[in-house]
Amino acid sequence: MHDTWLKLVGRVLRPTRSRLEFLERERERHVEEQRALGERRTRAVGRCCARIEAARAEIFAADDGVVSWKMLELEREWRRLSRNDVDGALMNLWARLVPSRWHDHKRFRDSAPDRRLDAVIALASDVDGIDAAVTAIDALRPTLVPFGVTVRQRLRFRLAEEDFAGTRELFAGSRAAALTALETIALDDRSYSNAAVAQAEELSVAVREAASARFPTRGLLVESLASAAGLDVLWRAARLSSEHNPVTPLRALWATGYVLSVLDATGLTLELPAIRPR
Hints:
Structural class: mainly alpha
Number of domains: 2
Mean pLDDT: 87
Strand order of the largest sheet: 1-3-2
Largest sheet: 3 strands, mixed
Strand content: 5-15%
Number of strands: 3
Helix content: 55-70%
């Protein structure tokens, strides 16, 4: 089990992103198209402004206080030309790069506006990984219900390094159930239950050390991995149903490269690891 968990630590925050090379070229193409469009818009706005100034001069020359329909049309044209529809361009890019089943789920919008292009590329480059992460979260929810924990259906992916601080609390009920089951076993075989607790602590320490080496600045993520590893040992040793083990879907999530970020009353957010350092 040690080797399995240590291999898992190596996969955390490392999505497969099998289409990344292609998507990086698509990013460059998009940026160039938007640059060219911006230059054309700037020239068009300049020409429109010149016509507005000419029309304004005509109005002043007439000195009759009448603003012609031509002036109103030019002002409407100026407003239209001045509007930079960044979101619309990103939606078009999204529709071109992702499967049709994703078209109505514009997950890139969960990131800050200045990072949404990066989010489009990160998401579209790892379709299978994102789908697997969603499946893992869907499997996690029912394992927490018996312990009074409800995770809302809304799921976000966000380009932001924000570790979830409540992993230990999230699994407090699960851990208590495992320990209670072990106490029952201990009535017949105390050495077995004591060994299980010792093995859980040993694995937690090993995972904590490996995770700390990989994530020296992300203590909350390190503790999440360590506490989940310990709970996994306790749950298995307590002979509880593997189907209801909450660590199993969490491990499946981590294996995709994504991690818990925020859990609140509105839903759950997963961290979308950056493609390149900011």
